[in-house]
Structures are given as C-alpha cells and as structure tokens.
Amino acid sequence: MLQNPTSAPNSPRPHARRNPVQVTEELGRGDLTATSARALRAPDRRLLVLLAEHRVLTTRQLARLTAIPERTVQYRLGVLFRTGLVSRHRPRTAVGTCPYHCWLTAFGTAAVGAEQAASWSEDPMGMRTVAAISDLWIDIEDHGPTAGLTLKGWRRLPDGLTYRDRRTGDERRLSADAELTVGFDGTREMRAIVFARLDRVPVARLASVLARWADYLQASASASATFTALVLTGGPTRRDAVLDVARSAPDVADHVAVATVGPQPVALVTGALWRMPVDGDDHCLAEVLASMEGK
After folding, report:
1. Does the pLDDT of residue 125 top 50, yes or no?
2. How many helical (H) and strand (E) elements, i.e. helices and strands, does the chain have?
3. What percent of the chain clears pLDDT 90, i.e. is strictly above it?
C-alpha cells in the first residue's frame, strides 16, 4: 500500500502506460483558469497529478512513473510550462546534464483540484531534496523485488512526525521527510524514516536531529516493527559528517545508514551506496536493513 501526501490513504501507484502516447495539440494561451480543466489531455493531466502528489519531480522520474518516453515527457512539460501550469528549473552540474526539476504553479494546482503548491524558485536545494526522496521511493518499487525487498508502504512527511516525550509527556516533533515500510521474505517487515540533508548542515544541528531521533526510538520502543533512519546527503563530505555525529551517539549508531545522492541518478537499492556508523564499508540497501533487523 503506497500513500502520498495528497492522495487517498489506500491510493496505489498508478499503472504504467505501456502503449505509446500520442502527442496532443498544445493548450491554448488564453485564460488559463477558464480553459485548464477542459483543455488538458490525459497525458498532461497525468503529469500534473503526479506533480501534485510528489511536489517536485524530474523529467526522468516522470518518464519512469508513467512509462512515457522521456522525450515525450519533456515535450509535454514544455507545453505545460509555456501555458503557465508548471514551473521548472535545471540545476547546474559539473559533469553531464541535470534533468529539469518540475513543480506546479497556482494555475496547475487549480487545474487538477490540488492544494496550493509551494514555489521552489527561491529554494533550489529544497527542490533537489524533495526530488531525491522520490528517487528512493521509485527505486525501491522498481528494483526492490530483485534485491529481496517489497515496498509495503510509503508516505511523505511534510510536517515531520510527532510523538510524546517519555520523560515529560510533552509533544515533540521529529523533522523527518518520509516514512516507508519494506518486507523481507514475505513475512518480516521493517519501518524506516527518511531524512534528506543535501545542504551543508552544521554539526550542532545534525547532533540535535539525531538526539531527537534517539528520543523517537525510545518513545516507539514498544512498536512491533524495527526502526531505522535512512539519510540522503549531497556528497561524501556531508555523509561522513553525519556518520561522525552518529558514532558519538550510541543510542542511534545502530539505527542509521547514509547514502550520497547527486544531480545524476544513482542505484539507491541495488548499488552499494549505503554506509553505517558501525563500519566503514558500503552496502546495498537490503544488507543495511537486514543488519538492523531486531536492533
């Protein structure tokens, strides 16, 4: 069961389109509020709905989610951009070409009846962070079975997680980005909380986040599922900073794994990209989760 922040609790991932998609005529350039709902063709509406659910997606991610050829996706997004329904930005990268990152405008949200979308024009790092989280979800769903993992649940956490402090009874908030549940061998399950920290986070702030993570683990100790924190960072230096802080916190050292992501897609499920504080080796995601099971 997959759950997205703006979709119904039991809404599954849409079935991929296996047939070629016909390129439709461009939307009119007149009054968008009057014509958007009527002028949209099915492929365009599908793209807008996905952007409403996930806030930011790249052209590559949209092509994977819809099974529409990437060149067709790029063309349709260009149409939607020119008609004011979609905003987009292409981050700079030292090597290769970064794909466009796309999100809905106010007209785009109105066209599909979604909640008001955030503008990412002034927050390029936040835009990249949201897209990186989607990479993890898509990779687990597409490649998890090959690696022995089954995606049981997924949801965004735009407001983090709230819990009760066991010492004071006060309500606390854990600044997390997503929650997923994966299955092993058809019988075992593990729940993971995803944190994305692509920007340069001060060590003191990292320590604060991990301390709150330790509090959350204690408050949730009676739960049947095992917990782990999957952290996405923007480079090896930032990854090592997270690992160093985790090593100094024994309560969380066995419950953290960190992977590095960048402008180019990486194999977050099948690749040996995850490192834990307890050793200096890189592991694939299934190995990380199996090693944390029962801790």
Report:
1. yes
2. 10, 12
3. 33
Whole-angstrom CA distances from 31 to 27, 39, 76 are 11, 11, 19
Q: What number of residues does the chain have?
A: 295
Q: Residue ranges of the alpha helices (H) in the chain?
A: 32-39, 42-54, 59-66, 70-82, 106-112, 124-143, 203-219, 236-247, 250-253, 285-292
- Residues 35, 110 contacting (CB under 8 angstroms): no
The answer to whether residues 194 and 248 touch, using CB atoms and an 8 Å cutoff, is: no
Determine how many CB atoms are found less than 10 A away from the CB of residue 85.
Answer: 27
Q: What is the pLDDT of residues 200-244, one digit of tens each?
A: 777 788 888 888 888 888 777 655 445 788 999 888 888 988 899
Q: In what order do the strands lie in the sheet with 226-233?
A: 149-156, 178-184, 188-197, 226-233, 256-260, 274-275, 282-283
Instruction: Please state, in angstroms and rounded to a whole number, the distance separating the CA atoms of residues 186 and 11.
Output: 22
- Which tokens in the block code for residue 39? 């002028």
Question: Distance between CA atoms of 156 and 188, rounded to whole angstroms?
Answer: 23
Residue 232's identity, in one-letter code, is: L
How many other C-beta atoms lie within 10 A of the C-beta of residue 223? 10
Predicted TM-score (pTM) of this structure: 0.77
Task: Return d(Cα 288, Cα 63) in angstroms, integer.
Answer: 29
Antiparallel, parallel or unpaired: β 188-197 and 226-233: parallel
Write 167-175 long-range contacts (CB < 8 A, 24+). Answer: 172/212, 172/215, 172/216, 172/219, 174/212, 174/213, 174/215, 174/216, 175/209, 175/212
Bridge-based pairing of strands 101-104 and 282-283 is unpaired
157: exposed, middle or buried (C-beta count within 10 Å: 0-12, 13-18, 19+)?
Answer: middle
* Nearest Cα residue to 201 out of 172, 231, 229, 174: 231
Q: How is residue 67 written in tokens? A: 């099974």
